Amino acid sequence: MSLSAVSLANGLNPNMVRKWVADADGVTVGHSVAPAAVSAPVSAGAHAQTSTASFVPVALATPEALIVIEVQRQGTCVKVTWPAQAAAHCTAWMRELLR
């Protein structure tokens, strides 16, 4: 799948995801070099601490592959959604239906 397809399937802007990937890889984005990790001082009361922010991979649920069939016969419309992993069962069902 393309980066755009993955982005849109997860409700994200493809340009934003491209920037995240470039930031994680430390490649040039626009006119500057995006670092893979950025250190910034963070003050906590009287003490200053250094925090390192970096790319954190997040597991996204992948959409399940589906078979979608719409059959119209004698004024009746039937729409069936079937998991792609069970394609053989779908084929057998379709044979029986179309007899």
| Rg calc | 24 Å
Number of DSSP-assigned strands: 6
Number of discrete domains: 2
Q: Strand share of the residues?
A: 35-45%
| Spatial strand order of the main sheet | 1-2
- Stretches with pLDDT under 50, minimum 5 residues: 31-40
Element pattern in H and E: HHEEEEEEH
Q: Shape from CA axes? A: elongated
Summarize the main sheet: 2 strands, antiparallel
Instruction: Determine the oligomeric state from the structure.
Output: single chain
How much is the average pLDDT?
A: 75
Q: What is the terminal-to-terminal distance?
A: 37 Å
Number of helices: 3
Overall SS class: alpha+beta
Into which percent range does the helicity of residues fall?
A: 25-40%
Outline the secondary-structure elements:
Blueprint: H1 3-9, H2 14-25, E1 28-29, E2 32-33, E3 37-44, E4 47-54, E5 66-73, E6 76-83, H3 87-97
Antiparallel strand pairs: 1-2, 3-4, 5-6
What does this structure look like?
The strands form three sheets. The protein has a two-stranded antiparallel ribbon with strand order 1-2. A two-stranded antiparallel ribbon has the order 3-4. It has a two-stranded antiparallel ribbon with strand order 5-6. It folds into two domains: 52 residues, no CATH class; 32 residues, no CATH class. The chain is of the alpha+beta class and 99 residues long. About 10% of the residues have low confidence.
Write a brief caption for the model.
The chain is of the alpha+beta class. Helices cover 30% and strands 36% of the residues.
